[in-house]
Each structure stands twice: as C-alpha cells, then as structure tokens.
Design a protein that fits this description.
By secondary structure, this protein is an alpha/beta fold. It has three domains: 2-65 and 125-202, no CATH class; 212-270, Roll (SH3 type barrels); 285-464, Aminopeptidase (3-Layer(aba) Sandwich), CATH 3.40.630. The chain has helices at residues 2-20, 25-29, 39-47, 67-77, 100-108, 128-138, 157-167, 187-198, 306-323, 340-349, 381-402, 415-418, 435-443, 445-464; strands spanning 212-216, 221-224, 233-237, 242-249, 252-256, 261-265, 269-270, 285-290, 300-301, 304-305, 327-330, 354-361, 371-375, 406-411, 424-431. The strands form four sheets. A six-stranded mixed sheet has the order 11-8-12-15-13-14, with helices on both faces. The protein has a five-stranded antiparallel sheet with strand order 6-5-4-1-7, with no helix packed on it. Helix 3 (39-47) crosses helix 8 (187-198), helix 4 (67-77) packs across helix 5 and helix 6 crosses helix 7. The longest helix is centred in the last third of the chain and has 22 residues, at 381-402. The radius of gyration is 37 Å and the shape is elongated. The two termini are 49 Å apart. The structure holds zinc ion. The site of zinc ion has 5 residues, from loops. Residues 25-85, 86-149, 150-208 form the SLH domain.
C-alpha cells in the first residue's frame, strides 16, 4: 500500500543518485570489517557515497550513529541541498559543521525535528525509534496497519512510525519479537534500513513471532494499549478465555486474542485452564458469636453479666437477619461455653460468609463509654479489606442507633478474628462498667440488634458490587 505513494519520490531519488554519484565499488571492497550478512546493503550505500568508511580502512559497523551523522546520510540519500554549511534553526548546531547544511535542509523538508527547547543535540546518538520517525517522514512510509512487536504499545505516533517502516519492509525487529525503540542505532543497522528503503531487493517480511498459550482467570480482564492502567482500554476478556502471550513489561504482558492485541496484567492469567469457582447459592450466611458463656461470664458490672447481654442481643440479631433472608449460624444459642478456637471452627465449618462476635466493654474508670468495633489486617488483602468494611458498617449503624460515643474501628489481633479465615469483626457494643450505658443497651436490646443486622446487610450490599 505504501509503495504506491512513495514510488514517484523513489524513482526520482534513484535517478538522481545514479546520475550524480559515481559508483566506486573498489573502495567499498577495501573495507575490512563489513559483516558478510549485510555486505550487499552496506556496499550498496557506499557505492552511492551515502555512507563512507574510515581512513583506517574500517567500516566500524557497531559504532553508534549520531543525530548529525544520520541527518547527513539521509540528506545525501535524498540529495538534499546540504553540502554547503549554513545557519540552522537550532541553537546548538555549529553553522560551520559538515552536517549543518543537511540538518537545515532536512528540517525544511519536515524530515527531522529538534527538541522543544530549540536544540538539535547533534552529538547525541540516534535511537531506533528516531530512525523510524526519520525514515517514515523522509520516504512517506504511511502504512500504519498493525504490526507486531512485543515491546511497543499500539495506536501511538511512535508505533505508527515503527509500523510504517515495518510494513515497508525496512525492518522486522529482533528474533525475540521486540523492536527495542529506545536502543541506539549502529552504523550497520542504519545502513541496512536505509538500503532497504532505497532498493526493493533488500526488503524483508514483517516479523512472525510465536507466543505461549495462557488463560484468563477472572471474569473481566481489561486489555490496554500499553503496559499500565494509564493506557486506554481497548477490550475486555472473560474467565477461561484463551490468549497468546508474548514478552513482559513489568507486571504487564503483551497478548493476542481472537479479537484483539494489547496488554493485560499478569496477575490474572495462568498457563493452565482455570477451574470455575462453584456457583454461589445466592444465600448469605452469617456466623454470629455471643461472647463468653457458662462458667465464663465475661465482665459483670451494674447487676448485669456480659455473657447474658451478648446472647440476648445475638439471638435478636439472628431473628432479624433470618426475616431478611440471611442465614445465621450461632456459635452458641444457650448459656454454654466454647473455647475461642471452637467458635472459629464452628463458623468456618458452617460455610459462613462472615463472622461477627458480640461483646460488652469494661473499664476500671466507670466513666469510660462508647462503641468500638475491631478487625484485623491478618490474612489476605481481600479479607482485611472486607473485615474493615464490615467493621465500619456495623460501627456506624450502632453509633447512629444508640447515640453512643463513636470510638471508631480499630485493629487488634483478637483470637476469634485473627485465627479466622472469614471476614471477621469483634463488636464492643458499649461499656457494661458505665452505669448509664449498661442500662441503655440492656433496655434497648432490640434496637441494638437491629443496628447490627443493618450493618451486616450494608456489608453484603457493598460486597456484591
Ligand atoms: Zn467480652
């Protein structure tokens, strides 16, 4: 597709070059270090006097090309008016330098640009990406249809330039599927690319790269144009989708699917076919733990015992939740004793979604008051996040309902929540040691239970999102 648009210019170039530059194959063949694999391309350019060897008789194929050298060689290839040094648009190009005429001519033709600060940086090495810009601008290589390099985001000006030279048969990257856009370009690489632009017989096919089959392990996985969340989303993959993966950039990997190419996060793919999680029944289950029991009364103050208050309120929470279709498993529903580990075991064996333990607080300072809810950051990040959310929902409902002092959500590794794999909280509903607060909660058991149930329902609504 590109060839049509460039043919006119190409013919003119070749005619001009042939007319003005005498072939000098003798001098080309005297250079000692031209790599055999690319001797045709390099000698072709030497023959056109576009690139030359050094006085010591070497070509120095691995030496890097500076930006002024690149401008000069391209200028010669395009037969730009450059042999006479002159003042340029750039503050850091010496008007008397050998390259000044070519730099300014190339800039006039919009083939080469400087930096936003008005400099050209003539002595800086040219990168492979800059070479792509240079060649795609100079030779109007505008076929930007998709090419496949594992280290290039798609749909950017950069990738368009690289696609342009790739689709024109000027390059096919490296054997590992990369293009290495920021690598400096050597004299051999520069010569090979330029020779391919000028002569069809040197052209190469776009790269074919083999990848590895992997599978998506989540329901919705975004595909992005580049390796990071700041890149645009161009597609979405579903659980079990088969993908072909290529090279990694940090935590991101370049993938091809039946419908798209782009980057996905490596955390959500697997080399084995993932097994779907069992379909949830839709029924929520709460493990409810009334603190203390039997020979362990908990705190006993103001004529009340903690074990009786927690059980009475827990039973009311159970009834309220059941009415709203939430299943409840009680660690105890009578005045019995279970160890802390037994409470955890009951909850986990029941298949519960969450664990809520109820307690009353106590302090020697009888004026201490308020409601507080504990969770722990132990376990997986998702469990910690869920536990914190559960604590916040219950705490807010209780303080709102009872009008108690808001002592907040706190982290503490209490055994019943720390040893638990479920999202888990321990609620200190109020101070049994504070006469007024003990009486308030004891006479408002139903309201207290309702607030806890509402907090649990808030949590389930949040968790479903
Ligand atoms: Zn307690």
């Amino acid at each position: 597709m590109m060839v049509k648009r460039a043919t006119g210019l190409w013919i003119i170039l070749v005619l001009v070059c042939m007319a003005l530059v005498p072939l000098n194959s003798a001098s080309a063949n005297t250079l000692s270090d031209i790599p055999d694999a690319y001797s045709k391309e390099i000698n072709y350019l030497i023959g056109k006097n576009i690139i030359t060897g050094y006085e010591d008789g070497e070509f120095k194929p691995n030496q890097l090309v500076t930006r002024e050298e690149a401008a000069t060689m391209i200028g010669k290839a395009l037969n730009l008016n450059g042999s006479t040094p002159r003042v340029t648009n750039f503050s850091d190009v010496n008007p008397n330098s050998y390259a000044a005429g070519y730099i300014q001519s190339a800039n006039d033709q919009k083939i080469i640009t400087g930096y936003t600060d008005g400099t050209f940086k003539p002595k800086t090495n040219m990168t492979r990406l800059e070479m792509a810009y240079l060649l795609s601008n100079a030779f109007k290589l505008t076929d930007t249809s998709k090419v496949f390099y594992t280290d290039m985001p798609s749909g950017t000006a950069q990738s368009n330039a690289i696609a342009g030279i790739t689709n024109a048969g000027v390059t096919n990257g490296y054997t590992d599927g990369t293009f290495k856009p920021s690598a400096s370009i050597s004299r051999a690489e520069f010569a090979i690319m330029l020779a391919r632009v000028l002569n069809d017989t040197f052209k190469v096919q776009p790269p074919e790269v083999t990848g590895k089959t992997q599978y998506v392990t989540v329901d919705s996985l975004n595909v992005r144009t580049g390796p990071g969340t700041s890149y645009a989303k161009i597609g979405s993959l579903g659980f079990g989708d088969k993908i072909t993966t290529y090279s990694k950039t940090g935590d991101w990997i370049y993938v091809k699917t039946s419908s798209t190419v782009g980057y996905v996060h490596t955390a959500y793919i697997s080399t084995t076919v993932p097994t779907p999680a069992p379909t949830p029944s839709g029924k929520k289950i709460v493990a409810l733990d009334a603190g203390h029991g039997a020979h362990d009364p908990g705190a006993v103050k103001n004529g009340l015992s903690e074990k009786n208050m927690t059980l009475a309120i827990a039973l009311k929470v159970r009834d309220i939740l059941k009415q709203s279709g939430i299943e409840v498993v009680m660690t105890r529903s009578t005045d019995t004793y279970l160890s802390l580990d037994e409470r955890v075991s009951v909850a986990q064996k029941s298949g519960a979604d969450i664990f809520v333990s109820l307690h009353m607080n106590s302090a020697t300072n009888t004026s201490a008051s308020g409601t507080e809810t504990y969770y722990t950051n132990a376990g997986t990040t998702s469990r910690a996040t869920a536990s914190k959310a559960l604590a916040e929902f219950i705490q807010e409902r209780l303080v709102d309902e009872l009008g108690t002092k808001d002592r907040g959500e706190k982290t503490e590794n209490y055994r019943v929540i720390y040893k638990n794999s479920l999202p888990a909280v321990l609620v200190e509903m109020g101070f049994i040691s504070n006469t007024a607060e003990a009486k308030l909660i004891n006479t408002h058991q139903t309201e207290t239970a309702k607030a806890i149930a509402l907090g649990i329902q808030d949590y389930f609504k949040w968790a479903e999102k």
